[in-house]
Fold this protein.
Amino acid sequence: MSLIVQKFGGTSVADTERLRNVARIITDAYKAGNQVVAVLSAQGDTTDDLIEKAREINPEASSREMDMLLSTGEQISVSLCAMAIEAMGYPVISLTGWQSGVITNTVSGNARIKKVDTERIEAELNQKKIVIVTGFQGVDRNHDITTLGRGGSDTSAVALAAVLGADLCQIYTDVEGVYTADPRKVTGARKLDEVTYNEMLELATLGAQVLHNRSVELARKYNVKMEVLSSFTGHPGTKVKGVAKRMERSYISSVAKDKDIARIALIGVPNEIGTSFKVFSLLARNQVNVDIILQGIGHEEGKDICFTVAEKDLKKASELLIEQKEELRYSRLETNCDVAKVSVVGAGMINNPGVAATLFEALYDAGININMISTSEIKISVLVDKKDADQAVQAIHDRFFGM
Amino acid sequence: MSLIVQKFGGTSVADTERLRNVARIITDAYKAGNQVVAVLSAQGDTTDDLIEKAREINPEASSREMDMLLSTGEQISVSLCAMAIEAMGYPVISLTGWQSGVITNTVSGNARIKKVDTERIEAELNQKKIVIVTGFQGVDRNHDITTLGRGGSDTSAVALAAVLGADLCQIYTDVEGVYTADPRKVTGARKLDEVTYNEMLELATLGAQVLHNRSVELARKYNVKMEVLSSFTGHPGTKVKGVAKRMERSYISSVAKDKDIARIALIGVPNEIGTSFKVFSLLARNQVNVDIILQGIGHEEGKDICFTVAEKDLKKASELLIEQKEELRYSRLETNCDVAKVSVVGAGMINNPGVAATLFEALYDAGININMISTSEIKISVLVDKKDADQAVQAIHDRFFGM
């Protein structure tokens, strides 16, 4: 007998028919002899509707009261889902965050799970019940309801899987799993059977929002085996684990792009110690995240500092840098929104330095110019012109995954 | 400084504008130097909508899961109300049933409050906060959410007023208070400044659903001063208390009618000990409530037993009695739906036997026939033909309250 934690997102529980479908998936796992804990998000647009209601009354409502409001969304989902399972004749109970012992810190709206008192859940499992738990929420030491912020329900599921020692944490969503590239955009994109935690983390930062980073980090920390799969098709999905099986010829798992970035260049910065520090600490203090950084070695007349930021942060970053021009003593600021980042991710590339060369060759053959390059142990990102991004992804994908 | 508990029903908090209005009423009381605890129902049709959602999924959902679902309605109300008060710049916090320490028995769907742990509410009041509490709900010893059934929010408010030692429990609703008769139907009907708990209880059983009996019984038991008033007009309402001031000439407080009743007559029941017992225990076992009972002293050939039931129970009652005809040995069953009950209620009538005579005289003068009569210490009810009911109420009201 295995213990399985299943998580269902908002689209999977959006209406009565879908809730019944989720109830079938849950009871199928139960009938197969497993203990099942299901973690549910709020139905469809419920959370957005509640946020809209709150805005109407008070656009600056406290996060404490927002959490009080938003946490009702999952409570509705879990009770309705339990009713659907009752109708099928299986023993079931729904639990809120506080009932299931999810204790968080006191940061309303973006709380972190501190511990999970599993007593109640285990008691219900021992009574052979299916347990349906609200995702996204917990309770702090003051007995105030808290929510976990973005990706909260995934995090709830992984946390429960970790403390309960679950054999598998299945994340049911509206996609079939993790792909070698975006299947809507890239010809020949294939679903991966397995990816590593680290690959998943790199992919998430590239905008492939299949799983939220917090949940993957937690899964990696506690070695929780995850599976991403569709609640609609019932096909096997993609397993996320410490070591992933991969076809021999492919050292990378996926190609992705991010178009919502902008490049900033500071030309003619004094070639002194501490100039980079000044630039990047200024931006960090003002919550501007910097991605790829490229800095030449410089010469007597000065050096150039190039970096990318999210497109939405470009205006703010430019203003900050212009304000501090005298302090930073650069001669010219250049910005460029017509860029995109294309990345390949793969745990296999650590031991295969040829990956970068293959990538550069693919782009060269396609006649695509590379602006900047950044590498980590399992990721290579290149900056290309925005107009070339889709072609770049296809070219790279063809080279690595082509038949 | 006084402590005031205010309760607002579903229509009072139905939308953003009304919630803002409620926030103003609450903060006005706070600004006047009072400690304020407000108890809120779910918004408008929220509860009905949730029940409909549940029915769609499982018409026979367990009451445990129904409570889980329905309790979200008040949680939404209180958080939105707290946000409205935050927007006005006052310190406020919303609390669910379990957060505010409302402990109930384990009867889901119709729970009774066993105790209230006031620690949290008092701590928030001591921090000068306005406290907004969900009505209608609590938590049982298993940490399951329970709801209190019909009239639950009134009951929550009175229970909190009792344990907190509140100086006043205001029940805000969509009517101005308790009237001498239904103001939409009876010319000259006036709002009463005060009524006694007992009068209020008799009025509630007559279908004047201003306050639910449970809350009034609780208020009487713990001597909680109540006031029924409108959340829309801001006028003073009707106080409900142990002893009510009343104009000298009027021994009664109110005239009311109930048209949804039916009369059943068992003709020719054997004149033996135990026959009434058999009839009424049969009905009680089958959840049929009997109201007025009239039984002649009987003679050798047998006796007649007349009584009234709610119109909706007539079919069930008749079937039960027909099934048991051999056992009960009556000769004929007669039923009549064309009847209505008209009642006068007044604590003053205990010491004024003339009230009954005045009532009978008023009906005689109006040419209205009386079918049956039933009296309690503070109520006289007569059964009249349904077609005469409105005229009977007006005639009685004119006689007791006419100028």
Q: What stands out?
A: The two ends of chain A are 41 Å apart (CA to CA). The longest helix of chain A spans residues 63-87. The longest strand of chain A covers residues 254-269. The domain at 3-174 of chain A is CATH 3.40.1160.10 (Carbamate kinase).
